[in-house]
Design a protein that fits this description.
By secondary structure, the protein is mainly β. It has 1 helix and 27 strands. The chain has one helix spanning 21-30; strands at residues 44-49, 56-61, 66-68, 76-81, 87-92, 99-104, 111-114, 122-127, 133-138, 145-150, 157-158, 166-171, 177-182, 189-194, 201-202, 211-216, 222-227, 234-239, 246-247, 255-260, 266-271, 278-283, 286-291, 299-304, 310-315, 322-327, 343-348. The strands form 7 sheets. It has a 4-stranded antiparallel beta sheet, with helices on one face. The longest helix is centred in the N-terminal third of the chain and has 10 residues, at 21-30.
């Protein structure tokens, strides 16, 4: 669900929060503020916007400063912060095909380099915990495979080397393994391998189901994912070795795209269990899911604030796609609209 260009019923924006755009940006950025070590020690959020006429990667800082990071007439999207908060990977087609780029914030104006550099399509970057390497998918061998490289240059290594589609890499927090989605069974399954490509194992074994969107918990011991093994898409959690499978959502509705809280105790997800697509949060150990968006529109693309108190997400409440905020405990929900253009893919700086 979600993304730029959705349809919805335009509402009066001032009914949500009648503030000037600059003050709105300040409120938008400062939720979840904490002591920081990244760019200028200022908490920030990256997102994608077409406010300049094409999709660009932006960062909004606590002080209200808005920075167009990519600043190019090509299509720039899919921002991913490095764990240390100093660099931002994104995907751009500015050199003809999709490549993985990195914006380095070690200077006042971030320097940008193409790190994957290949005429084939590259995408889905995932940072290693040490912020020095990136896993990504590429079609340079004719079909999607998982590759790894250093962000500042060096050899590109093919980890999967299989005729099936291997996509959506997710680097484990302990830095030892990479999860990915593959069609080698032939339905979509989630596999885990070591970062050198060894000991590849199927951890979902969903037979005739599709298992997608693997997300590691902060401890690196479990993975959440979306599966169709019980009919409608549901959220499952499994140990990293494939044991201890748990149906977390257990609903007749569609539940998708899990996102772990920073402490690993809760999972946010998208669900249409109340008719439209809303953002829910529930404890991994049990309990009823809590609707934290409650907007009666379509919401998607969950991103937790670093302190776990807020969630940023996409919403088409106002007719276009905006990034809004909500409290994760369901109380005193404060929701802010950022711009008249389409915004998507929120990413809090770690």
């Amino acid at each position: 669900m979600g993304g730029c260009g959705g349809n919805g019923s335009p509402l009066n924006r001032s009914a949500v929060h009648p503030v000037a755009p600059r003050l709105l940006l300040l409120a938008f950025a400062c939720f979840g503020c904490r002591s920081a070590t990244g760019p200028g020690s200022i908490p920030a959020m990256a997102f994608v916007s077409n406010r300049d006429g094409n999709e660009e990667v932006y960062v909004v800082f606590e002080n209200g400063r808005l920075l167009n990071v990519s600043d190019h007439p090509a299509r720039d999207r899919d921002p991913r912060w490095s764990p240390d908060g100093w660099r931002l990977a994104f995907v751009s087609n500015r050199e003809g095909s999709d490549d993985v780029y990195v914006a380095d914030f070690l200077s006042l104006r971030p320097s940008i380099r193409n790190v994957s550099r290949h005429p084939a399509r590259d995408g889905s970057p995932s940072w290693a915990p040490d912020s020095k390497q990136l896993a990504f998918e590429s079609e340079r061998d004719g079909d999607p495979e998982i590759y790894v490289l250093r962000w500042d240059g060096g050899e590109v290594r093919n980890l999967t080397n299989h005729p099936a589609r291997d996509t959506d890499p997710a680097w484990s927090p302990d830095g030892l393994r990479i999860a990915f989605v593959t069609t080698r069974d032939p339905r979509s399954e989630i596999y885990v391998m070591y970062v050198d490509g060894s000991e590849v194992s199927n951890i979902t074994n969903g037979s005739d189901a599709d298992d997608v969107k693997p997300v590691w918990d902060p401890s690196g011991t479990r993975l959440a994912f979306t599966s169709t093994r019980v009919g409608a898409s549901e959220l499952f959690v499994t140990n990293a070795d494939g044991t201890g499978l748990l149906n977390l959502s257990n609903s007749a509705a569609f539940d998708e795209n899990p996102a772990w809280s920073p402490d690993g105790r809760r999972i946010a997800f998208e669900s249409n269990r109340q008719g439209d697509w809303e953002i829910f949060v529930r404890g991994v150990g049990g309990g009823e899911p809590l609707n934290v968006s409650q907007l009666r529109s379509n919401e998607s693309a969950v991103a937790w604030s670093p302190d776990g108190s807020r969630i940023a997400f996409e919403s088409n409440r106002f007719g276009n796609w905006d990034i809004l905020l909500a409290n994760t405990d369901g109380s005193q929900a404060s929701i802010f609209d950022a711009n008249q253009a389409n915004e998507s893919a929120p990413q809090w700086r770690p």
